[in-house]
Amino acid sequence: MTPEEITDLFTRKDGSYLCARWGRPVAPVIFGLADESLDIFRTVIRAGFAHAGHPVTDTDPEMGSNLMIFFVRDWAELAEVPDLDRLTGSEDLPRRLQRQRADQYRMFRFDPDGAIRACLSFVRMSGALADAHPAELAEALTMRATLSFAADITPSPELAALIRAAYDPALPVAAGDPSHALRLFARLSV
């Protein structure tokens, strides 16, 4: 992975760079899955964050849960989630996702120091994701929630190494300068 490829992973459509990691323990909760799939997701989330060297806990003292994953068959089901507009800050999220024909959507909230405070993932389990293997989907969603990637990523050993590098305690929890990609690259080369 080159420094340019790393920079691209964290460069937004507006050209700004943001690489942020979690600053607090991750407290996941998953809605809309059958019990047999739920165990797979819990295991993969714990393993993914353990690989990054970051703790997973049962509850966040301020928020209860801070990594929320919602599974639906159709985006209209999100209208049944209590206070969804307050949770997301978006009054029209289900209709917007329907119009975009999205399969998934992810949003982050950040602490004052720029670290990830919360991640909300919404997954429509029809269309392209209908036949996804639960373990593969869990791995992809977990990796996408570990850092503030600017676009969807596909799990790979290179990305796993990048995530581990980004959680190096010597690096800041959040960086807005593209030169940060060089620091990540240097940790991959070791």
**Number of helix segments?**
7
Helix % is: 25-40%
Structural class: alpha/beta
| Secondary-structure element string | HEEHEHHEEHHEH
Total strands: the figure is 6
Distance between the termini: 13 Å
Mean pLDDT equals: 94
Low-confidence stretches: none
Describe this structure in words.
The protein has 190 residues and is α/β, with parallel strands linked by helices. It folds into 2 domains: 1-20 and 149-190, no CATH class; 22-146, no CATH class. Helix content is 37%, strand content 16%. The protein contains 7 helices and 6 strands. The strands form 2 sheets. It has a 4-stranded mixed β-sheet, with helices on one face. Helix 1 crosses helix 7 (180-188) and helix 6 crosses helix 7. The longest helix is centred in the first third of the chain and has 18 residues, at 35-52. The protein is globular, with a radius of gyration of 16 Å. The model has no long low-confidence stretch (mean pLDDT 94).
Short synopsis of the structure:
With 190 residues, the protein is α/β, with parallel strands linked by helices. It contains 7 helices and 6 strands.
